[in-house]
Amino acid sequence: MVKGQSLPLILLKLTKNSEQGLSLTEILVSMMISSIVLALLAPLFLMSAAYRLNSLRAEQASAVASSEIDRVQTLMAKGVKKNETLGILPPVTDEQFDALNPPEATVTDRNDLTDSSKALELDYDGDGKADFLVQLFRNPGFDFDSGGKTKDQVAFFKMGVRVYSIAAKDNLANLDTSGELASTLFTNIKDQIEKPLAAINTEIIRGDSKLSLLKYKEYLENQ
């Protein structure tokens, strides 16, 4: 026993010292466990963030494809001369859409889209840098051969749009030809540079002319 101190006082000090040492150990153990848990969860957080980013890109690509359809449909409603389609309507292809090859080159001006093997570099967010590659194409369709004001204007065609990530620009020679869309999963990053993020095929018709229905029936009869 220490001189001048009672037994209860000594035991109280020993107890306090033991509790302080135990608390420090608990903190160290907790920190170690937290580090291990974070290390295990980090890949999940990364995959989740990558999935959200890829999903956002896919949504943006779908918006680009839809806007191209809307743009062409609006122009068709105003009337497009069959010999004035360059830079206005998609280039014509005789290939079946599901067999059409991916783009082989890119351009920055719509007027340079002279055939379906070229894709337009598109700046989606307006930052001065291209975000997507847009491949546009259409079949020959039909033109109005009569009808006064509508004569020699484009009447109807089937149109296709494929939207690729700008990352595919450096991989044009290796683009996938299966027609499948890119996966948004983190584990399929390769898809983002090989497959389209969005694709739409639709029919475009000059709907304000009485002859449009006749031309559409003519198209269906030739299918």
Can you walk me through this structure?
- The chain is α+β, with helices and mostly antiparallel strands and 223 residues long.
- It has one domain.
- Helix content is 37%, strand content 17%.
- It is built from 2 helices and 6 strands, in the order αββββββα.
- Strands 1, 2, 3, 4, 5 and 6 form a 6-stranded mixed β-sheet that branches.
- The mean pLDDT is 82.
SS element count, helices: 2
- The Rg value, from CA coordinates, equals 32 Å
The SSE order reads: HEEEEEEH
What separation lies between the terminal Cα atoms? 108 Å
Q: What general outline do the C-alpha atoms trace? A: elongated
Note the beta-strand portion.
15-25%
* Helical proportion, percent range: 25-40%
User: Biggest sheet: strands, sense, closure?
Assistant: 6 strands, mixed
Number of domains: 1
- Overall pLDDT level: 82
Low-confidence stretches: none
Find the structural class using helix and strand composition. alpha+beta
State the total count of DSSP E strands: 6
Q: What is the structure about, briefly put?
A:
With 223 residues, this protein is of the alpha+beta class.
Descriptive key words:
alpha+beta, 2 helices, single chain, 223 residues, 6 strands, 6-stranded mixed beta sheet
Helices and strands in order:
Blueprint: H1 7-78, E1 105-107, E2 118-122, E3 132-138, E4 142-143, E5 154-165, E6 198-205, H2 212-221
Parallel strand pairs: 1-2
Antiparallel strand pairs: 2-3, 3-5, 4-5, 5-6
